[in-house]
Amino acid sequence: METAAPARVVVIGGGFCGAFCAAELAAAARGPLAITIVEPRHVLGAGLAYSATDPAHRVNVPAARMTLHPDNPTDFDDWIRRQGVLDADPDALWADGRAYPQRAVFGRYVAALLAARVAARPEISLAHVREAAVSAAPQGGGWTVRFAGGGALAADTLILAVSHPPPAAPAVIAALGPGPDIIADPWAPGALDGVAPDDEVAIIGTGLTMADMVAALTRRGHRGRITAFSRRGQLSRGHAFVADPPGFFATISPPRTARGLCRQVRALIAQAAAQGLPWQAVIDDARVHGGALWGALDEREQRRLLRHVRPFWDAHRYRLAPQVEAVLNERQAAGTLTVLAASLRRAAREPGAVALTLQPRGGRPPVTVRAARVIVTTGPAHAGVVAGHAVLASLASGGHLRADAVGLGIAVDPQGRVLRADGTPNATLYVVGPLARARYGELMGMPQVATQPSEVGQLIAATLERGLVPG
User: Fold this and answer.
1) pLDDT in tens, 85-97
2) From 288's CA, which of 48, 295, 371, 449 has a CA 20 to 30 Å away?
3) Residues with Cβ < 8 Å from 457, sequence gap 6 or more?
4) CB atoms within 10 A of CB 189
5) What are the start-end ranges of the E strands in 117-156?
6) Which structural domain, as residue segments, surrounds residue 312?
7) How many domains does the chain have?
């Protein structure tokens, strides 16, 4: 009897979301399957988020909460203990007993999971293509992916798991042109190598990446003055231990306006305080119910929430590992780290420095910071992700894909299928990860970010089993 040819699934992007989606697909598939992951990095599962090699860069969620398995919530924490990670890195274990390993460890965990899933299924193959894809186009009911080196790859189903776009430097910084004094990509290998111990440093942005840069510089022996600034000056907050907090949002109807949602959150924080619970309990519960809360808002209210509330949400939702928080506290107490709520007005190169003119909030007089190095940590430039990524741009030019309406990434339907320019879903083209967050509301942090790739992997497996692909 003739053996059926394996279905061909190509995943563009081999970071956490792409690798985990492939792992879930491999576990759920009911027939022969050829999975190819297109990822220029040497390893799968790490991507931008978990490729960091600096020991100061740690996961910012306790390992016991970074589960990929709802039925085994401590799987990652158990894995690092079995692997001897805490023996090799005792600083990963905090005083409260929770572990915050170095970020690259989670990438190794995802890679091990993917390898085990494929090894358990001899009818499933996995290939890793270490090239950069430059375009994708429909062909013969499926897709053709082309590479910078001239090769091509055929797929019945295509999954887009591209990483965050790089940060966008403010216009006045970009106008200066490149130079060793401007660190436009703080995650580039060796980005901090040129920073001398006594250099004065300015950091544009005050979120988690800023905190990581301060921790990395401090580990390298940097002792010069650091000035970090953003328009609102919001620093990421720290963790508080909450054991099984009550479900605050489970019994209420989601508010229909951004203002109503903010009022609801404030009221619940007051309610939690009366019960002896920290504000983190409410924010964590809002994260769990993020899809319902976000989905209750129409497009106008979603835009309003992003415009007015997002910086505050990000600062409270995406928290600091306690090891990094301790570094920030120490440097602020020593006077070598200053955090300002200010806008950048002008930038000019001077001998040995970049002079930044900042306008503080509240109408206070402008201040000038002269820094030997300026580090850009403004966060991903989601608004330009389609035009800035070759594959996405090629799909958009053919009408196979469009940006979402609120400027967070790519428009998808509730199943993660990409919406064409005319608004219809494509049954063989999917997005997994944060670029689908306009649909789901919360796809940036663990464990929520694991749910959507898992669902997409299982959906594709079920679709293949029904014989609907190619289609």
Assistant:
1) 999 999 999 988 8
2) 48
3) 20, 21, 22, 23, 24, 25, 27, 28
4) 8
5) 124-129, 133-139, 142-147, 152-155
6) 258-317
7) 3
